[in-house]
Amino acid sequence: xxxxxxxxxxxxxxxxxxxxxxxxxxxxxxxxxxxxxxxxxxxxxxxxxxxxxxxxxxxxxxxxxxxxxxxxxxxxxxxxxxxxxxxxxxxxxxxxxxxxxxxxxxxxxxxxxxxxxxxxxxxxxxxxxxxxxxxxxxxxxxxxxxxxxxxxxxxxxxxxxxxxxxxxxxxxxxxxxxxxxxxxxxxxxxxxxxxxxxxxxxxxxxxxxxxxxxxxxxxxxxxxxxxxxxxxxxxxxxxxxxxxxxxxxxxxxxxxxxxxxxxxxxxxxxxxxxxxxxxxxxxxxxxxxxxxxxxxxxxxxxxxxxxxxxxxxxxxxxxxxxxxxxxxxxxxxxxxxxxxxxxxxxxxxxxxxxxxxxxxxxxxxxxxxxxxxxxxxxxxxxxxxxxxxxxxxxxxxxxxxxxxxxxxxxxxxxxxxxxxxxxxxxxxxxxxxxxxxxxxxxxxxxxxxxxxxxxxxxxxxxxxxxxxxxxxxxxxxxxxxxxxxxxxxxxx
Length: 492
Prior knowledge:
The chain is of the alpha/beta class and 492 residues long. Helix content is 35%, strand content 15%. It has helices at residues 3-32, 35-44, 76-79, 96-99, 140-143, 162-171, 181-189, 252-273, 276-299, 306-312, 322-334, 353-377, 448-458; strands spanning 64-70, 123-126, 133-136, 149-156, 199-204, 232-234, 339-344, 384-389, 393-398, 409-412, 416-421, 429-431, 433-434, 441-443, 446-447, 468-470, 473-475. A hairpin with a 2-residue loop joins strand 16 and strand 17. It is globular, with a radius of gyration of 24 Å.
């Protein structure tokens, strides 16, 4: 057996049935159903472009998702994980019984002591319809919607440095090279809009220090999946998508003729060697042409009512801001983009945290809330999953010099906070407990794999059954070496 030929044959077959499923299936169904039933079904079911015929595995709670990724790791201690007892521990060394020999980054491993830095920010307990949710004064808008949120305080990871930690969340593995969450969704579920990509990414501007952790396009890449499933980066300057505009002197008709010729040449190439990537290239050329119309319409906010723009805050019309990205994400949800991922950098606050986190929270608080509430008032939140969080948390002890009103915090992978809303998530939930130092998990741990498994589950996917054979292994987003579980406690 030639493994390369077997791989090509398998992938070609899956792509063929995936792309033909809606057409052949509809034809077969129409042949056995009365016309009235067929017309009724056609009016209720949206067409799907691409995807695997066996997906979704079960009825999804969410049809689409927005992932708000706070790159750099926001401090759970200053935003969501209220620890009032720490005021008594100010400048006291973190007990070894709490740290328990946990490995440290090189940024603090050489410190003589690990002085505890209580948060200087006030917290208030807000009515969430249950036991209440403690939210920092830095997030007044988020506090107003706690009845819609499931706040998970016990997320944990093995990664202690940024790149592997972000890569873990985005691709299910600390090592680069695996497909991203959005690529898996595009591959498995396809798209409900043939004029926009199934997976779109935006990198928002931020108000913290200009130096921030780099983000690489492999975080939204397709890995070993066909390249047509990689995320498309929407830019805030120039063409929203690279090479979207026709070059000077090239008319739309001429570009279409060029693309048609390229399709013919690629079809000949495919007949010759049978490489599925040739089909992916054809799909990308066709999508690029359709996006010349769909993307300018998507990014045009001129018809948005003033009261909607005001919801998102004063920066909503400034291209590239987090507010602008959030309203665009809502517009993409209306157009059935499968996943929108918005990265907001600048949360890596090893020093001068109180000043920097104020600015960062101001960036994201109102727009995040507006996104959820805007979807809700349009009747879309029930079918749209919104996820917020970073790659790990921050330490209760100070990095560098500590004073009553200033401190920094190092990386902390053992417990941190995320929230989810919509898409079958139970609102008004605070899940999990950490110790008094927000250092160790006391109850209900949630791993990175569990987060990804839960996201897939809400979109109708059994994470153990969405696989892709590569190098002799049936890969999946949640990995094959460790168990992952659905966080059922936060599901409606």
